[in-house]
Amino acid sequence: MQRIPSIYFGPSELGGRGVFSTEPIQADSLIEICPVIACPKEDLPVIHKTFLHDYYFLWGENDDECAIALGFGSLYNHSRQSNARYWCDPDNAIIEIWSIRDIEVGEEITVNYNGDPEIQDPVWFEEGGSSEL
């Protein structure tokens, strides 16, 4: 399984597109395994000058590389009250998306772009607008 069959992407009230489910998702469920395209650290300054700036993940042992998540990985929107989290696995070149609480049918699946749902640090865009991850 690379993703639960009930998830889909669609327009988001947070802005842009988001990820949703046609079925309820229980807490602590694996939602999706996203393969990534990892880029060397030399590409990180370059990606900041492109449209992909809002879609990449910090990557590598020292977070000095970048990666683009495939599947729906780069479409999960940010929320400080997220209902999911992401886990980066550089050894296997994947990002896993896990629910951290029950998610209702039609509820947008969101992650905290700070990595840990408990971290409430500011992000690089004005919240209430959006940036997909």
Report on this structure:
With about 130 residues, the chain is mainly β. The protein has one helix spanning about 45, and strands spanning about 5-10, 15-20, 30-40, 55-60, 65-70, 75-80, 85-90, 95-100, 110. The strands form three sheets. It has a five-stranded antiparallel sheet, with no helix packed on it. Strands 1-2 form a two-stranded antiparallel ribbon. Strands 6-9 form a two-stranded parallel sheet. The mean pLDDT is about 85.
Range of helix content: under 10%
- Structural class by sheet pairing and helices: mainly beta
Mean pLDDT: 87
Cα end-to-end separation: 22 Å
Strands ordered across the widest β-sheet = 4-5-3-8-7
Largest sheet: 5 strands, antiparallel
Order of helices and strands: EEEHEEEEEE
What's the Cα radius of gyration?
Answer: 14 Å
Quickly count the helices: 1
Shape: globular
- As residue ranges, the low-confidence spans are none
The fraction of residues in strands falls at: 25-35%
How many strands in all?
A: 9
